[in-house]
Amino acid sequence: MFARIAAAALLGLAIATPAAAERIKDLGTFQGVRSNQLTGYGIVIGLAGTGDDSLEYSTLGVKGAVSRFGLALPQGINPALKNSAAVLVTADLPAFAKPGQKLDITVSALGKAKSLRGGTLVMMPLNGADGQVYAMAQGNLAVGGLGIDAADGSKLTVNIPTSGRIPGGATVERTVNAGFADSPTLLFNLAEADLTTVGRIASAINGAVGPGRAHVVDAVSVAISAPPGAENRTLLMAQIENLPVNPADAPARVIVNARTGTVVINGAVRIAPAAVTHGKLTVRVDEKPTIVQPAPFSRGQTAVEPNSNIAVQEERRPMFNFAPGASLADIVKAVNQIGASPADLVAILEALKQAGAMKADLVVL
Question: In the listed set 119, 141, 172, which residue is the last one of a domain according to the structure?
């Protein structure tokens, strides 16, 4: 009896949630719930002679770092800092990050440093786009690259030795106000604009949380009426992002990468009735010059007599016919029958588009 009840429950779930349905959270994000980029300038020390040497901005950075400890270099002294390097530090501050949480940071050499392997990043601030300090960074670098220079000038480089990471190398010092708790409505934005999908999302939200709560703003956004308070809105967002929605089918599109010869055709592409033939013309020119020697005792000179051989070959390929509503499988089958190369396929698709037989977006990268 228990097995029958479990099977019936599973069947009911399968019927209630179609296999093609996707969660709303996979189709877009709520406005304000996003990460923010942080950047900063710092100094890496402890390098084994692979630093910036005598770069001026690296020297100024080191002077600024040691000045915090009451040390000052005499005027006119420009030390050769082979064991330090100027770096730029980047990190992503996740949404709702709180002070004290750790961030992974990426450290990249800015000047002439050959390797950051074994270096230590001196404490430095990470700033947001508004110029405010949101995190402080410091720690030992983990560098996956390796660079070796020999005395004879030969070099060996493995991966990238001038860039590394510090897991948990930054500590959050300030939060970012997302504003979702105080705004009159919640705004959900699709990752890709689609009128059909945005309408289905609004209908799914109204069916789950109450009629009239969600309104379509445009092809990307859905405005959702929400009660004030961070807790109430967080619970509402958690409920909404797990609702299943059947997104609209992707528009018919053909992607052509002219550099690599890659052609991708999605399943929505259809071909109107059309007849296609594609031939290949090959012109071959062979140069076989002949060396002509003068007759004995004629006091002539050796000459080169040009000899060119031109051959023209045109392949005869059969014409194939597309029936009305030909699908992706029909296109692939027909192209394979004539043995078309990727370049030939691009030419055929462009001709079909110009003839009006292919109703699809042709995107050339």
Answer: 172
- Reference 189, options 231, 228, 230, 217; nearest CA is 217
Residues forming a β-bridge with 288:
none
* Pure H helices in the chain: 2-16, 56-67, 195-209, 230-241, 328-338, 342-355
Q: Which residues pair with 285 in a beta bridge?
A: 310
Whole-model pTM? 0.63
**Rounded distance between C-alpha atoms, residue 70 and residue 306, angstroms:** 83
> Does residue 120 fall inside a structural domain?
yes
Please count the structural domains in the chain. Answer: 3
Within 10 angstroms of residue 364's Cβ, the number of other Cβ atoms is 11
Query: Are 190 and 75 part of one and the same domain?
Result: no
Length of the chain: 365
The answer to whether residues 230 and 184 belong to one domain is: yes
Give the span between the Cα atoms of 323 and 158, in whole angstroms: 55
Give pLDDT < 70 ranges for the chain: 1-20, 54-59, 61, 63-67, 69-80, 146-156, 180, 258, 276-287, 308-329, 331-332, 335-342
Does residue 116 share a domain with residue 73?
yes
- In tens, the pLDDT along 257-266 reads 767 777 787 7
In this structure, the answer to whether residues 302 and 258 fall within a common structural domain is yes
For 26, 99, 220, 341, the CA distances from 95, given in Å and listed in that order, are 17, 12, 21, 48
Q: For residues 185 and 240, state if they share a domain.
A: yes
**Residue range 212-221, pLDDT digits in tens:** 888 999 988 9
Report CA-CA distances (Å) from 254 to 13, 341, 348.
36, 16, 12
Query: What DSSP character marks residue 247?
Result: P
Residues 78, 42 within the same domain: yes
Q: Say which amino acid occupies 263.
A: V
d(CA 33, CA 28): 11
**Contact, 84 vs 49, CB < 8 A?**
no
Instruction: Kindly state whether residues 158 and 220 are assigned to the same domain.
Output: no
